[in-house]
Design goal:
The protein is built from 8 helices and no strands. The chain has helices at 3-17, 22-29, 36-46, 51-60, 63-91, 117-129, 135-146, 150-163. Helix 2 packs across helix 4 and helix 5 (63-91) packs antiparallel against helix 6 (117-129). The radius of gyration is 21 Å and the shape is elongated. 67% of the residues lie in helices and 0% in strands. It starts with a helix and ends with a helix. The protein has 2 domains: 12-80, no CATH class; 92-97 and 111-163, no CATH class. By secondary structure, the chain is mainly alpha-helical.
């Protein structure tokens, strides 16, 4: 699998997805526009790609229209989060090792530990469930996790699957 090409493609998609769909959000921002309901239907069909246009429209609206636009952005965001969590949870049983990180420059005293699909899924799920955790604390936990024995990591993953709680 060509990971570099996949990363490049993902970067291109993210760059294009972050550009607000100007005409759609302008149509929604004008409360009296005749095509406003059509623009709303299109944005609902775009799902997570509609988050930025809804937020851009909310900046131009006021009152109940602003609240509706923010609510739609929130709904699209929650649907995306649910799909991401579902995908990550489906990765927890996978113990396949992931490809090593890119070659580090210069001498390396300690080789980076081998990570597995389930390890990365667990760390990402933990981060999603703790969005307010300080970045330094999250990095410290990630480092601790990567240097913990596989048996212990497997136990903690099973505990999360069974209870939905992180240790």
């Amino acid at each position: 699998m060509d990971f570099h090409a996949a990363e490049t493609l993902a970067g291109d998609v993210m760059k294009d997805a972050r550009v607000p769909l100007h005409q759609l959000y302008r149509t929604i921002a004008l409360s009296g526009h005749p095509d406003r309901s059509k623009a709303q239907i299109v944005l609902e069909a775009l799902d997570e790609l509609s988050i930025m246009p809804w937020l851009a429209a909310a900046g131009k609206l006021s009152g109940t229209h602003r609240i509706q636009a923010l609510f739609e952005a929130h709904r699209a965001s929650k649907r995306l989060e649910e799909r991401v969590v579902e995908t990550l949870r489906s990765m927890l049983p996978g113990h396949a090792p992931l490809p090593p990180p890119p070659i580090l420059q210069g001498p390396v005293e300690v080789e980076p530990p081998v990570t597995r699909e389930c390890d990365e899924a667990y760390l990402l799920l933990r981060r999603l469930h703790r969005p307010d955790e300080a970045t330094a604390d999250a990095r410290e936990h990630d480092s601790f996790w990567r240097h913990t024995r596989e048996e212990e990591r497997d136990r903690l993953i099973r505990l999360y699957v069974d209870t939905g709680e992180f240790q």
